[in-house]
Amino acid sequence: MARPENLNAILYFETVARRGTLSRAAEELTVSPSAVSQQIKLLEQQLGVKLFRREGRQLSLTLEGEQLYQSAGTALRMLKDARRNLGRSRETRRLNLRVAPSFGVLWLGPRLSRFVGKHPEWELRVDAAPDPTDFDREVMDLDIRYGTGDWRGMHVEPVVDDHILPLATPEYLAGLGGDVLNMARFIDSARNLCNWDTWLLRNGIETAANRKTLLIDRSSMALQLALDGVGIVLESLAVASAEVAAGRLVPVTPELPVPRFPAHWAICPSRYLNRKAVQIFLDWITEEAGRHEAEVAAIVARHGLTVERFESVTELTG
Question: N or C terminus: which one in the chain shows less Cβ crowding within 10 Å?
Answer without folding.
Answer: N
